[in-house]
Structure formats: C-alpha cells, structure tokens
C-alpha cells in the first residue's frame, strides 16, 4: 500500500566532483530497473546541480538536507525552498537531530520551513527520535509523542504524500548500533498511532515512516520487512554505490 522510500542523507560529505561520481554510479546500477518504491539522494547544496545532471532520466530522486524559512530577501547564507525546487529538488530533510543539536533548531522553525516548502510543492522528510538517556529512562514514547505533537498539528498543508516521517533514534545515528527490527517496529507503530490521533486514521495509514540509524545493506531487508517501516534514511551507507544499492535491493526484497 505504501511505496518504500530509501533516502541517502549525504550530510557534509562530497563536493560536486565526488557527488557526481557517486550519483552516476548509483544511477548506472538503477538504469533500466523499475523500482517498486522510491530512491532519493540528498547531497549538500553545492552538489545538487551536479547530481541533478546524473539523476536525469533515472529512477533516482533528488533532495536537500535543509532549507531557509523565508521566501527570499536579505537572509545571508540561506537558500529558499523555491530555489531548491528550481534546481530539481523534490524532498527536503527537516529537523534532523544534528540540526536540533548543533544549530539549536526548534519546532517553530520546523513549522515555518515545512509550511513554506509544502506551499512550493516540495515534500518534507520530518525527523524525530529520542536520545540515549531518554531511552534508558524509558521515555522514548513520550519524547516521540512530544516531537510529533509539536509540529504536525501546526502544518497548514500536511498530507500523507507531501510529508514523510523519519524515526531516527539518536543513539543509533553513526554509532553502528542499529535499533533491532522489533524496536523499530514498536516505535513506528507508536508513531503511527500518534499521527492517527493528530491528523486522522487515513493520513496515518498512508504516511510513510522511515527508519534511520546505522541502517546498512545487511540489516535493511529485516528492518524494512516490519509492517510499519516504509524504508530508511541512510547516512554513512549512502556514501558508497554498493552499500546504497544494496539497501535499495533490501527494500525491494522486503516486498516479497
Ligand atoms: P547513519 O546511517 O550514518 O547512522 O546516519 C543516519 C542518519 O542520520 C540519516 O539521516
């Protein structure tokens, strides 16, 4: 019912030359294949045009890792959703834990960014997830509830096709420690319950919820086979052709 999404978050890696090489490598491996889901790469801003050229004509979608919260004007260093759209971007990652932590981004900012990018016809990938200490204290459901509640009901145009959720337990990001399939399924099912309460049963059943945190080719199949896990947001393993394509293969295999 829900198409899977395998999204690569390249973070602050790969300038235009290296990004083109990776995207061209992935595109070559996908060429001629009809995927039963979506494959997306989210390079740094400056690498987007090079990747757009490589992705053209392939089943590889293009995303960004961030956007500004204004239409345009005197906002030094910012990039508007409309500019990203013009560059070929379809998805924008919002509220990644690294931006929550290092840039101190908060719910008000997430709401402004998502409303703006939705108004431009772009799709948001909204990230959330608990810290290690919060999990150890048994507070993961409460934290996830608060993070979803702080943003979803305030979105003007939210629907299951312009918004993707990405559950990324912070203790699993870049640590090599992956949530077990059972832990992921439990939190995804809980997230879906929260979305049902906030937005309604039908949006909740159609909205994709990705898992992120040390996802790799060797665990993708099992994670994505869980009924409420609709793909992944991939960091480190999205930086190598074989690893990323292996994860896409895992998503295809999970469909049976
Ligand atoms: P890793 O896959 O490197 O753990 O990163 C996950 C992530 O933060 C994706 O957004």
Task: Record the SSE blueprint.
Blueprint: E1 5-9, H1 16-30, E2 38-42, H2 48-55, E3 60-64, H3 81-86, E4 91-94, H4 97-102, H5 107-119, E5 123-128, H6 132-136, H7 140-149, E6 163-167, H8 181-199, H9 201-206, E7 209-212, H10 217-224, E8 231-234, H11 241-254
Parallel strand pairs: 1-2, 1-8, 2-3, 3-4, 4-5, 5-6, 6-7, 7-8
The structure holds 1,3-dihydroxyacetonephosphate.
1,3-dihydroxyacetonephosphate (13P) binds at residues 9, 96, 168, 173-174, 212-215, 233-237.
What this model shows, in words?
With 256 residues, the chain is α/β, with parallel strands linked by helices. It has eleven helices and eight strands. It has helices at 16-30, 48-55, 81-86, 97-102, 107-119, 132-136, 140-149, 181-199, 201-206, 217-224, 241-254, and strands at residues 5-9, 38-42, 60-64, 91-94, 123-128, 163-167, 209-212, 231-234. It has an eight-stranded parallel β-barrel, surrounded by seven helices. The two termini are 13 Å apart. 43% of the residues are buried. It binds 1,3-dihydroxyacetonephosphate.
